């Protein structure tokens, strides 16, 4: 268990009304037949208010985004894992469905390693995997029909050899272990799974698009964002595997662009336009 130095007991500041994609999104688990490849479906209703920026916080999953603008334009995109937060203003009112890929599912679903998608936005139709072949149909379907369509189409198009299946299983176990708030070390996780640290790094790079260390850092920062404003910073640091409050602040600032106190007060970096597909 990491040593925790209690620096101060001041509570975190009250949360400001920072708009994040996660706050606008409702989520549901995917059906069991799709769960080896897709863990979650998120729905964001039509967003009409364009004056306030959205905070897109770091995320470890590769995500298929089916976006529908109020004017009728539709597109099917893939967002790779996001290593740092971005702050953007939407160009047009739009709604979307977000399909999050399971660890190790990028290659069988999209035909490329997850590392090729990190911090990128690409058109789904430009990717060579089975999901890319379905891009046009997915882009036109009513949102409520997407899961049923994928249940019919995806399983018969996907194929894995035993090695790929084993790697996906290892990744799922490792990701769950590193997501624990107690801060399990990477050597300990590798030892538990009977693989070397180098093998674990290679698995994460190909199957998730991040190093195990960065995967764990994103998980901790996302946990911090879930805290209410009346919890002392020292307690938040201890609960999430940080050595002390200074370690928490440095990690948060690196991934979010501002220290946690400023973020929770709504003092955010200047927004930029949404990233265009590569």
UniProtKB/TrEMBL annotation:
It holds the Pfam family HTH_18. GO terms for molecular function: DNA-binding transcription factor activity; sequence-specific DNA binding. Residues 168-266 form the HTH araC/xylS-type domain. It comes from the Bacteria. SUPFAM superfamilies: Homeodomain-like. PANTHER family: BLL1074 PROTEIN, HTH-TYPE TRANSCRIPTIONAL ACTIVATOR RHAS-RELATED. This is AraC family transcriptional regulator. It comes from Nocardia bhagyanarayanae.
